[in-house]
Amino acid sequence: MSIKTNDPKLKSWVQVSADSDFPIQNLPFGIFQYKDLQPRVGSAIGNFVIDMVVLYEHGFFDDMGFGKEIFENKYLNDFIGLGKEKTAAVRQRLSEILDTDFEEWDAHELAEYFLYPMAQVNMLMPVNVGDYTDFYSSIEHATNVGIMFRGKENALMPNWKHLPVGYHGRASSIVVSGTPIHRPCGQTMPDGAESPVYGPSRQMDFELEMGFIVGKNSDLSTQISTQKAEDYIFGMVLFNDWSARDIQKWEYVPLGPFLGKNFGSTVSPWVVTLEALEPFRVQGPEQEPEVLPYLQFSGKKNYDINLEVSIQPESGAAQTISRSNFKYMYWNMCQQLAHHTVNGCNVRVGDLYASGTISGPTEDSYGSMLEIAWKGTKPVKMPDGSERKFLLDGDTVIMKGWAEKKGIRIGFGAAVGKILPAKY
After folding, report:
1. CA gap 179, 420 in Å, rounded
2. By C-alpha distance, which of 280, 302, 307 is closest to 365?
């Protein structure tokens, strides 16, 4: 007998609270370190991290056809590279091990050896990101920014509804949740000035995004169709694409973002598989005008994932300033990957593709301070009486994401980053 891993009736013998991001229907993957153990592959159930190495050593994966080194690893790349058939089988086996009613794999007596309290575990960067691309795929965000800088009549550039706009970012500065980010320095052109100045950015911002991790290599000169794109997507993470708006504004013409973006991006530590997100598929926005044939697709390719952003000052309470949803994305992941490879660009396991800022249709669903405070004209009031036009040193940005249906909540944990003063 095999278990349907998405079955809402599944229950684990591990206690899981109703508001947990990690029920038995989720079972994401990440890299962790516990006490003096070496970094290794883990999964999550309730408030516990699952040690995949210990489960391997006790024979639970003997029939899977791979060695222990897959789990004794500081990145998920080798595990992901096994292919979806194998990784799905591992997740299936985990579900069986943890299921209350499944008798073939009885692991209760081993619990203390492979379950560690999540609060005592140090989560690490989940994948070794070889290449990183950031898209610009929220029509609400693109429209808001366009109105601010070009006016309503020219809000969207002529190409925006014809292709998923994107740029290649810097993979080396992507960090895991909890890693602080120093305020970047660079050139800016202050309003009314005749020449640029150098110094710390005065317009530090976050961008609420999600990212997908590539799980399969493609050869150079190979196109990945929208129909086959999901074969190449292993799973998803939360993503904060930190932005220095004043540096970006001065530098971006004619080649686009550079120093205003590449100083740091933050990812959540758990990679949630597409299989876990299957029940949350929804239709995306209608695309008008009709896209070119290579961008056309069938079926539900968007996902109903609730997103939330909070700011916590250095010495004060956190305040939620945005509630958005991944379902608002105009361009979906399959279209993004199809467009990225239509010219023959190859992809590799561990590559990360970010959605671009995810903004909804209302002011409380905007995905950046640039929009929420509307270029500084509508400051956000904080619980301690202070205001925010952009982020201040000492501010911690907390991003959370979860999908929920039929009493099952599939979450991503959090992507957290604190702004430290500039180093210069």
Report:
1. 10
2. 307
β-bridge partners, 43:
29, 50
Cis previous bond, 361, omega within 30 = no
**Tens digit of each residue's pLDDT (9 = 90 or more) over 83-124:** 999 999 999 999 999 999 887 777 888 899 999 999 999 999
Note whether 413 and 21 are within 8 A (CB). Answer: yes
Q: What are the residues whose beta carbons fall under 8 Å from the beta carbon of 158, sequence distance 6 or more? A: none
Which tokens belong to 196?
């640029």
Q: Which residues pair with 320 in a beta bridge?
A: 310
Please report, rounded to a whole number, the percentage of residues in the chain having pLDDT higher than 70: 100
Is the pLDDT score of 61 beyond 80? yes
Cβ neighbors of 415 (< 8 A, separation 6 or more) are 177, 237, 238, 239, 240, 266, 267, 268, 398, 399, 400
Helix spans in 71-138 (H): 77-80, 84-98, 111-114
Distance CA 266, CA 209 (A): 10
Residues with catalytic annotation?
A: 141
Question: What would you report as the CA-atom Rg of the chain, rounded to the nearest whole angstrom?
Answer: 22
- Please tell me the distance from the alpha carbon of residue 49 to that of residue 30, in angstroms, as a whole number: 9
Residues 356-392 have pLDDT tens digits of 999 999 999 999 999 999 999 999 999 999 999 999 9
Tokens of 35: 């006490």
Using CA atoms, how far residue 208 sits from 50, 66, 249, 267, 369, in Å, is: 28, 37, 19, 11, 10
Give the span between the Cα atoms of 278 and 301, in whole angstroms.
10
